Amino acid sequence: MGRSPCCEKVGLKKGPWTPEEDQKLLAYIEKHGHGSWRALPIKAGLQRCGKSCRLRWTNYLRPDIKRGKFNLQEEHTIIQLHALLGNRWSAIATHLPKRTDNEIKNYWNTHLKKRLAKMGIDPVTHKPKSDTLGSQSKSAASLSHMAQWESARLEAEARLARESKFRSVSTSLHHHNSLSLGSTSSSSSSCSSSATPLDHDVLQAWTFSGVGLIDDNHSTICHNMESEEVEWKCLFGKPRQMDNFTSLVISVDSSNVGTVSSDAGDELDIVGFTGMLLDNSSDNAEERSSCAEEDEESKRYWDSILNLVNSDSPSDTPQLPPLF
DNA sequence: AAGATGACCAACCGCACACGT
DNA sequence: CACGTGTGCGGTTGGTCATCT
């Protein structure tokens, strides 16, 4: 529509905000509310565009912003939600109520992404990078799941959009209706109740095809590489304390499949990754038995995610509000 | 000591969408 | 329905500071 830039007017200031400007903006919003952002700068006596004011307010001046280092729980939440939602920073931010999308985005780009990369996990797909090699048979099997995945994704998109609209109307429900993946009352949806929890199939569909941080078998691992927090944890299902680990090796060769080993010689069960790394379309009876066990484990895993995402205990700790 | 490099993060930019007319 | 406006969002930039050489 050929819309003109909001800051095209000469004379409008750009760049870092001064304490005086902050004070003006703060004082005006406290007194009048922000109202129309475009009109605000003139009323508040600021030589800024409305957009700049809005950004300054939402990312910095808002009183309900928690600043400073992200704790481990917050990091885990970000990683989990990024695995589910991708770069939907605003959606992720709704589950970290005191953090801004910009802050989360910055933290992801400067810390978490690098950490995952160091671990050999693609920060985009949340899969081991080696999975791109030798996974052709797996990818063939994957195709049959793509429709399921896409269906779940589209459903979630639609619901996100609806809830976004809803949030704009009802701020009181802000933290309980923002993220949506599963059920919906949409006519196009197969699910009819907004109160219906997400089921395993949908979650698996979501994590399938590279969207999930974790695969079918529970083993999501996060390593805080920073020296002051040498702590390893599995994000779901199998919490472990792994002090003094300094690096992580994901074993991908057939003789050592299913383990993650540290240079300290410890090993972790990581059948989850191997499920992705190997073609598991075996007709071997033993392996089928193994698959049954994995299915059970998988179910427990998804239950853990469902517990997480359906948790409704709002607090400073970033518990995920109900999603569905 | 000084320049190079990297990390961090606030802020900007442009696009997309919702909504009112 | 078309158009204009306001706002939200995600990607990117650029300034500042710390560390390295």
From TrEMBL:
<dbReference type="InterPro" id="IPR015495">
    <property type="entry name" value="Myb_TF_plants"/>
</dbReference>
<dbReference type="InterPro" id="IPR017930">
    <property type="entry name" value="Myb_dom"/>
</dbReference>
<feature type="domain" description="HTH myb-type">
    <location>
        <begin position="9"/>
        <end position="61"/>
    </location>
</feature>
<keyword id="KW-0804">Transcription</keyword>
<feature type="domain" description="Myb-like">
    <location>
        <begin position="9"/>
        <end position="61"/>
    </location>
</feature>
<feature type="domain" description="HTH myb-type">
    <location>
        <begin position="62"/>
        <end position="116"/>
    </location>
</feature>
<protein>
    <submittedName>
        <fullName>Transcription factor MYB106-like</fullName>
    </submittedName>
</protein>
<dbReference type="GO" id="GO:0005634">
    <property type="term" value="C:nucleus"/>
</dbReference>
<dbReference type="Pfam" id="PF00249">
    <property type="entry name" value="Myb_DNA-binding"/>
</dbReference>
<dbReference type="InterPro" id="IPR009057">
    <property type="entry name" value="Homeodomain-like_sf"/>
</dbReference>
<keyword id="KW-0677">Repeat</keyword>
<keyword id="KW-0805">Transcription regulation</keyword>
<dbReference type="InterPro" id="IPR001005">
    <property type="entry name" value="SANT/Myb"/>
</dbReference>
<keyword id="KW-0539">Nucleus</keyword>
<dbReference type="GO" id="GO:0000976">
    <property type="term" value="F:transcription cis-regulatory region binding"/>
</dbReference>
<dbReference type="GO" id="GO:0080090">
    <property type="term" value="P:regulation of primary metabolic process"/>
</dbReference>
<feature type="domain" description="Myb-like">
    <location>
        <begin position="62"/>
        <end position="112"/>
    </location>
</feature>
<dbReference type="GO" id="GO:0051707">
    <property type="term" value="P:response to other organism"/>
</dbReference>
<keyword id="KW-0238">DNA-binding</keyword>
